[in-house]
Amino acid sequence: MYQTMIDILKQELVPALGCTEPIALAYASAKAREVLGEMPDELYVECSGNIIKNAKSVIVPRTKNLKGIEAAAIVGMLGGNPDKKLEVLTTVTEDNIEEAKRLLERKYCKTSLLDTQEKLHIIVHMKKGEHSALVELVKTHTGIIKIEKDDKVIFIDEVTEEAINAVDYNVLNIADILNFAENVEITEIKPILVRQIEYNTKIAKEGLYHTYGVNVGAALIDIYGDDVKIRAKAMPAAGSDARMNGCELPVIINSGSGNQGMTVSLPVIEFGNMLNVDENKLLRALCISNLIAIYQKYQIGRLSAYCGAVSAAAGAGAGIAYLYGGKEEEITQTLVNTLANVSGIVCDGAKSSCAAKIASAVDAAIVATMISLRGKGFVAGDGIVKDTIQKTIDGVVTLAKEGMKETDEVILKIMMNEG
């Protein structure tokens, strides 16, 4: 179990440049171009509804202002390096961007909604004369399951949950996460978490001091001041401001999401700085916040109608409670208090307003933490709250996966001007 926890952190806390859904599109497109070996005459992309939802309104990194599925696929095709995976667009040049603009004007890339049960599913088709390439990606943002060249399968991988999660996420539970965080040899997690602190703080400051989107993070501090409770909301919101609006700095993600990676870490860092805790204490708190966020989200799935900022903020609240000396009882109650409050926030795609949702979720987590540290909290029978944390989280998972299934479809219809 000890090694599994470390493996989960290594697998989940990785760098990504830009919103991960357009990046997944760019990655699949870059791979298809590599397989084809030449510039295609035709580019056709099929996407699941959640990919469309999350790629529709966000700026593709390195492009300054290009948005959408077509832009992500074209830019990935022209200048992406598939070997860099979630940092696929770090090799894009100004010439690539100018060519992408010309191709977009020509409506070069065709797209369609993919008929699939998967939330995360992309198929990229390319043709050049008699030659063709196909790349299919499913379940994770780099999870290529099939590659074809000239209609012949050259790579196929039957993707199962077990194959994707080479480590067993089912070991995750609150008691064992806390035991691991308290006892792990700090040198084994330090490189992973120090990188998260460095990357996510840097992009948050970029969003705080420069113009991106509507600057939710900067507005919070301008309006409410520099109190730690405001900074804890403003920093991840500012990081999202920057990330959703074309900033070229990478972030360390959590559960496949940069916004969740910032939400789960930056509030903990702010409270750690305010409380003047030593580095080891902060790293153990971040270990708790990250693993508790993953514990919730891996059961829900990477994409859904349930806003991932909620599970990430709940994790951050747990980390903050730990910094204040909270034990299992207070940390568990923080999770319950957060989920009882804001589990209804919906995901309507990646875009500027994600920053405001992050701020709302973190605010709820801070309130939840302070209530729990006073020995108070919501109890079984209060709405969706059950008599154990596992039952409460199971209920939230059911809400997200089953209760919000139709919600997800309606959100997509509204976004596509069909509802």
TrEMBL record:
GO terms for biological process: L-cysteine catabolic process to pyruvate. Residues 84-413 form the Serine dehydratase-like alpha subunit domain. One of its GO terms (molecular function) is L-cysteine desulfhydrase activity. It comes from the Bacteria. InterPro entries: Ser_deHydtase-like_asu, UPF0597. Belongs to the UPF0597 family. This is UPF0597 protein CG710_017985.
